[in-house]
Amino acid sequence: MSISGIMQLRQNFFIILLFFGMVLSGVIFLNNIQNSCKQQKIEQVVIKPKWKQKTFGLRSLPGLLYNQPSVLVGRTDVASVTPWSAPIIWEGTFDPILIDSIYKQHNLTIATTVFALGKYTRFVKDFLESAEQHYFVGFRVHYYLFTDQPESIPEVKMGEKRNLTVLKVQSLKRWQDISMSRMEKLEKLIENELANKADYIFCLDIDTKFYGRWGVESLGRLVGVIHPWFFDAPRDRFTYERRPESQAYIPAGEGDFYYAGAAFGGLLEDVHQLTKTCREKLLIDAANSIEAVWQEESHLNKYFLLNKPSKLLSPEYMWRDINEKADQIKVIRFSNVAKNYAEVRPNP
After folding, report:
1. What is the SS3 assignment for 223?
2. β 109-116/200-204 pair status
3. Residue 89, exposed/middle/buried by CB under 10 A (0-12, 13-18, 19+)?
4. What angle, 0 to 180 degrees and rounded to 10, lies between the N-to-C axes of helices 295-306 and 175-189?
5. Mind listing the pLDDT tens digit for each residue in 211-259?
6. How many CB atoms are located within 10 Å of the residue 338 CB?
7. Are 67 and 100 in contact (CB under 8 A)?
């Protein structure tokens, strides 16, 4: 072979070698990017709360005796379903024997949060003692009590599978600030403590008392409680936040129900999203020097307008001791207790 032929062969060989080198480099580069993306996804999964699995069927036990259901007989004085097909729970719309037997098979834990700051510690004893008589009786309940005075919390005898954890928080000078700080504390509690420990959570006010059954009929993905002052009122009387400057703004002519800020709950993941969103909206309002008319309750109502609850609890589950009895209320399960707000609150 001539010298020119050998040179041409070498040149072709180097071109081919260079080509394969470039291909190999590209493959290595793409592989590194892919591994990097996978690593980022893995890191995201690690920091995301790992929620307990709640997938189970509504399985009834064999041989269980209970009243025959009827599609013809039931409550006719109240609505038992919303326009988006969510049930509204009233006395006479569920069978406690049947529903308890279904849920007791699943070893559920219900986390329950309350806040007792300042003089509100005086309500702790009645709340806990009445809860032990009526609240998810026979189920595992873990109470989380936020207070600035742990030494003032009385000892209350807990039943089997019932626990109380007292969490110290700083004192605040305005009751409005106490109200608005709840969403952030609930969000962090779910993230840091409850994500893989509880199945459901209810967030309740401490200045309350249980008078009747509050059980597993209340469980749902996202649960709101209809406010006792507005359950029979037209929406134009609801005390929504009406200033467009606020993130809690609901225009006139809109709204479904008026929900009580004193009681809400659901699955951990759904309540976490609720508290996170309300906390973010409260911060935006604060940055714009605006405070919604009823603080976190106003933001809760805005959230429920856009994110419909999967179950609603009737005013049986949030009554007021100062309210007159209504014909629709067959049983009072849970109620605010009468009090002198000027005396117990740190400011008007």
Report:
1. strand
2. parallel
3. buried
4. 50
5. 999 999 999 999 999 999 999 999 999 999 999 999 999 999 999 999 9
6. 9
7. no
User: Is 343 known to be catalytic?
Assistant: no
Residue tagged 């005390």 (tokens): 239
Given the residues 297, 316, 324, 343, the one annotated as active site: 297
114-152 CB burial, b ≥16 within 10 A, e <16: bbbbbebbebbebbbebbbebbbeebbbbbbbbbbbeee
Token pair 């005898």 is found at 157
Q: DSSP strand E in the chain: where?
A: 88-89, 109-116, 140-147, 162-168, 200-204, 208-210, 222-226, 259-267, 311-313, 319-320, 334-336
**How many other C-beta atoms lie within 10 A of the C-beta of residue 339?**
16
Q: How many Cα neighbours within 13 Å face the side chain of 64?
A: 15
b/e burial code for range 50-86 (CB count within 10 A of at least 16 → b): ebbeeeeeeeeeeeeeeeeeeeeeeeeebebebeeeb
48-94 pLDDT, tens digit per residue, is 677 776 667 888 888 899 999 999 989 999 999 999 999 999 999 99
